[in-house]
Sequence to fold (379 residues):
Amino acid sequence: MKKIAILGSTGSIGTQTLDVVRANGDIEVLGISAGKNIQKLEEQVREFSPRLVAVWDENAAQELAQKIQDTDTKVVAGMDGLLELAAMPDTEILVTAIVGMLGIRPTIEAIRAGKDIALANKETLVTAGHLIIPMAKEYGVKILPDSEHSAVFQSLNGEHKEEVHKLLITASGGPFRGKTRKDLESVTLEDTLKHPNWVMGQKITVDSATLVNKGLEVMEARWLFDVSLDQIQVVVQPQSVIHSMVEFKDGGIIAQLGTPDMRLPIQYALYYPHRRYLNGDRLDFAKLGQITFEEPDMDTFLGLPMAIQAAKAGGSMPTVFNAANELAVSKFLHKKIRFLDIYDIIGQSMERHKVIENPGLEEILETESDTYQWIESRW
Fold:
């Protein structure tokens, strides 16, 4: 049995990871965690019988403990609980499906404990890639992308890294592809959450609409695949059939194609280097008819160019970009700001920040807190 723990088991990636567990029968889930969705956690505890469940919210943890007191599952809370789950003695892989910078410290703890990381948490590498990647090498653990970057990972499999010319990361264009900045002045939250191809959590769906998500992926890719920013190109592929491509020095291009189903990269990460049968739709090229490409509109969708600007500035600036976006999206989801205000919040946060070169973990977390406080004082 393959033994795993999941950070963020009630979210989109977490629940699809459990779909993969159900479909295969040879994975044991030893630990799960969530923020405060105790109804879903209780269902998961009763189905998968994990040894440990970590709940971020202290009150929710106490309530869950009462609800599952007839089971053998231990309930822990807060950051200490997430760290305990990350370092569980018998697990082989930690699936980091948690949203936000909350995932950094548990990921570091898991690496120190010798766990391989199935990484779906972009923020970990965006803000702390300079810490995480060397640490993974030091402790001899694998970082296996189980989200969008699985396509690049699969395309590179068996190839020599030094022969890579560039990575071509594809984007669907989101629900507002083709719209002008004037059009975006009046879009609603409901409009934003209608992604044309993918079923994802609310935060990442908004990030897809702003192209922030693609910017985060550019920053993540430089660390995952050890390439320069100049070797990463974003291409809009509206059908979401080609999930990413790698162009080599000889001009050859290898692409990973498939239906928009996140279970594929999740399962590939859990069983790498082996492939298992996965039920679901298959591509029918005759019915598909065509695959089209466009350049991203970086004059309208500022998330991507601002991300590249943050990545080039380096140091603590990616943390500011990420933190500002997290808080701005939260405000948008609660209908406190407009869609275009997300860009203003990110841009102004970056403008006022003085970069810290090569920040340590505490400096990264302090930068996040400072950015939050500054935004809250003005928006």
Summary: The chain has a mean pLDDT of 95. The chain is about 45% helix and 15% strand. The first strand starts at residue 2 and ends at 7.
